[in-house]
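Good morning,

Attaching, inline, the backbone tokens for the sequence recovery test we're adding to the shared suite. The designed sequence is right after.
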């Protein structure tokens, strides 16, 4: 599979190059150039097909021109010692739980996969690479786990002072590990500004193979397509009609990856999600993309530090904008509806839900398909124990917090001086 930028359709490149140099010079984001027909992999999965097997097969289909099927299977095996969980709530409602990774966040899947892929790419090329990003705790904890044992990847993570957590002493670069956490005496926004300044120097970024572990990187986004094939394999023999997914919008990476799954020939009928300012709904119930009124050439470059996938979402429907209203169902949800949805999930299904999951369930109830045989898959992205205040307020109880999540939240004191400038951050990257 080849990849192109959302803003330049004339230049294609392979998966490895798109992962390493993840931010196109034209300011866009990398997207698949031509979609593969993967039905021979997808339609023959069933309840006995493991998540790792699905990930390995689809990886081979994505990048069979760069890596052998055995290598692709190895990448998936190393990336996923954990898997999503599928639970049937009632006759036509299913839950896909993505909070089963070590930190309880759905991002565990994408980051673990990206680290495994990138390590393989670098081994073949005889190179090294540096992840650069911002964290208030979560990203650093995820990367700490994903990079343990890696030989060719280091990470420089910028934190607001006092927010480092979830690591072991052996994870630190100065102790022989792969992470170099740095603190600034400022806000999260200040951290993002420092990272953007580094990425503005394209020569330096390319020389050092600096990349990101967020969904601006296509290697971080593609594995989210595995979720939908996995869900399909578990429910296809339990339903007769269409499949809709209800989910929180986030930065639209899950919706975009789901649409890629559909383009790969996965049977699905649409995505129901709470409306936002960026993706709203008109009086007729049709989706409205705010950015679409601005021509691509007049937009700011894609943000390597705080990405949005709306431009990729637009790209899916470039050939036929009218198709978007048949796949995307944004729904206006307020606070009362969200709280009521959380209570209903708990009372009917004994399911604790954080705010985004409750919003997705509320949206799914409103836009639930009229067809009697249609099914809805509710996506829970993060563990509800991470949203203790909301859960306690809505249902009066709290779920138990797994020990691995507790460890990921454990604060750490660096006892190292803060940095203030991009030049200091640049020097740290050079030391890696």
């Amino acid at each position: 599979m080849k990849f192109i930028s959302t803003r330049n359709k004339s230049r294609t490149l392979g998966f490895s190059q798109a992962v390493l140099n993840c931010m196109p010079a034209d300011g866009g984001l990398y997207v698949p150039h031509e979609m593969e027909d993967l039905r021979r992999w997808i339609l023959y999965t069933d309840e006995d097909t493991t998540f790792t097997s699905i990930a390995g097969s689809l990886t081979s289909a994505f990048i069979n021109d760069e890596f052998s099927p055995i290598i692709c299977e190895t990448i998936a095996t190393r990336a996923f010692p954990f898997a999503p969980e599928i639970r049937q709530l009632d006759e036509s409602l299913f839950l896909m739980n993505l909070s089963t990774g070590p930190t309880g966040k759905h991002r565990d899947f994408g980051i673990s996969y990206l680290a495994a892929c990138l390590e393989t790419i670098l081994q073949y090329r005889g190179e090294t690479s540096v992840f650069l990003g911002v964290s208030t705790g979560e990203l650093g904890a995820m990367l700490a786990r994903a990079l343990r044992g890696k030989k060719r990847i280091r990470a420089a993570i910028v934190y607001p002072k006092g927010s480092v957590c979830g690591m072991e002493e052996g994870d630190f670069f100065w102790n022989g590990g792969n992470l170099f956490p740095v603190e600034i005496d400022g806000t999260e926004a200040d951290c993002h500004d420092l990272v953007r300044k580094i990425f503005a120097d394209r020569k330096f970024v390319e020389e050092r193979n600096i990349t990101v572990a967020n969904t601006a990187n296509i290697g971080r986004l593609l594995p989210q397509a595995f979720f939908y094939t996995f869900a399909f394999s578990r429910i296809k023999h339990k339903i007769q009609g269409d499949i809709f997914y209800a989910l929180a919008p986030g930065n639209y990476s899950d919706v975009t990856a789901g649409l890629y799954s559909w383009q790969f020939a996965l049977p699905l009928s649409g995505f129901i999600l709470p409306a936002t300012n960026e993706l709203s709904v008109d009086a007729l119930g049709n989706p409205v993309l705010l950015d679409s009124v601005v021509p691509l050439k007049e937009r700011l470059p894609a943000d390597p530090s705080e990405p949005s996938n709306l431009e990729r979402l637009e790209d899916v429907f470039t050939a036929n904008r009218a198709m978007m209203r048949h796949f995307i169902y944004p729904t206006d949800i307020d606070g009362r509806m969200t709280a009521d949805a959380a209570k209903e999930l708990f009372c009917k299904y004994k399911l604790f839900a954080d705010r985004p999951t409750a919003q997705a369930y509320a949206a799914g109830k409103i836009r639930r398909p009229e067809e009697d045989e249609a099914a809805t898959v509710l996506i829970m992205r993060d563990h509800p124990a991470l949203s203790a205040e909301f859960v306690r307020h809505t249902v009066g109880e709290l779920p138990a917090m797994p020990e691995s999540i507790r460890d990921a939240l454990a604060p750490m004191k660096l006892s190292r001086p803060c940095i203030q400038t991009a030049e200091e951050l640049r020097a740290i990257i050079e030391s890696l």
